Amino acid sequence: HPDLATFYSNIGSVHDSMDNYPKALLFYEKALEIQQQSHSPSHPGLTISFNNIGNVYYNMGSYPEALSYYEKDLEISKHSLPLNHPDLATSYSNIASVHYSMGNHPKALLFYAKALEIQQQSLLDNHPDLATTYNNIGSVHKYMDNYPEALLFLEKALEIRQRSRPPNHPCLLASCGNIGVVHDSMGNYPKARTFYEHAIRIGEQSLPLNHPDLQMYRNKLEDVINK
Predict the structure, then answer these.
(1) What percentage of the chain has pLDDT greater than the value 90?
(2) DSSP per-residue codes, 126-171
(3) Cα(34)–Cα(26) distance, rounded to whole angstroms?
(4) Cα 224 from chain centroid?
(5) Confidence class of residue 1 from pLDDT cuts 50, 70 and 90?
(6) Pseudo-torsion of CA 17, 22, 26, 27, nearest 10°?
(7) What is d(CA 186, CA 148) in angstroms, rounded to the nearest whole number?
(8) For the whole model, what pTM was predicted?
C-alpha cells in the first residue's frame, strides 16, 4: 500500500537524520520494495527512494552503490522532468559528487557542468544552489591543480554567497578558505593571507572557537606568514 511506503520512508528519514545509516537503508529499501510492486519501473514516484538510498550509501562511503542508485534516479528524471528542472540539476550534482569522492575528477566536472547549465537557466543568479555548484567545480579544479580555473569558479561562488547570505555564514568561511588555499598553492602568499584572515574572522563569529575548520585556517595562516 502506498501509505505504508510513505510510513517506511519517514522512519528511514528519522534514522538518516540521526546518522543511523544501516537502519535508514533498511526502511528506505522497504519503502522502495512496496513502490516497485505498485509502480512501473520508470515511474517518477521511484526517484525519491532511489535518491534516499543513494544518499545513505554516499554518507557511508559506499560510492559504487551510491552511484548505482543515483544513476537510476537520473534515468527516470531525464524522461519525466522538463530539461531545465532544478531537480534534474540535483541528480547530475549527486552523480558528480560521487565521482569527485572516488577521485574521478574529469567525470565529476562533466556532471557538475550539466548541473550548472540547468541551474543557470532555472535559478535566480544569486541562488545559493548556484553558488554551491560553482564552489564544487572550483574545488575539483583545485584538486586537479588547475588553479586559474579554480579561482574563477570559487570567486563566483563567493560573490553569490556575499549577496545571498549573512556576513558571518559558515559557507562564506568555506569560500574564503578555499580561495586562500588556491592562492597559497600558486605562491600568492599575501592574497592567501588576506583570505585566510577573512575565513578566520567569519569562523570566530559563527563557529565554536575549537572548531577543526577554524583551527585548520589558523594553521594555514601561520604557515603563510612564515613563508
Answers:
(1) 96
(2) T-HHHHHHHHHHHHHHHHTT-HHHHHHHHHHHHHHHHHHS-TT-HH
(3) 13
(4) 28
(5) confident
(6) -10
(7) 9
(8) 0.90
- Domain region containing 137: 123-226
Residue 2 has pLDDT above 80, yes or no: no
- Quick check: is 113 in a domain? no
Specify whether the CB–CB gap between 90 and 112 falls below 8 A. Answer: no
Question: How many structural domains does the chain have?
Answer: 1
As a whole number of angstroms, the distance between CA 14 and CA 56 comes to 12
Own/partner contacts of 218-223, CB < 8 Å, gap of 24 or more, are 220/177, 220/180, 220/181, 220/184, 220/192, 220/196, 221/193, 221/196, 221/197, 223/184
pLDDT of residue 15: 95
> Does 88 map to a domain?
no
Grid cell in block for residue 70: 543515483
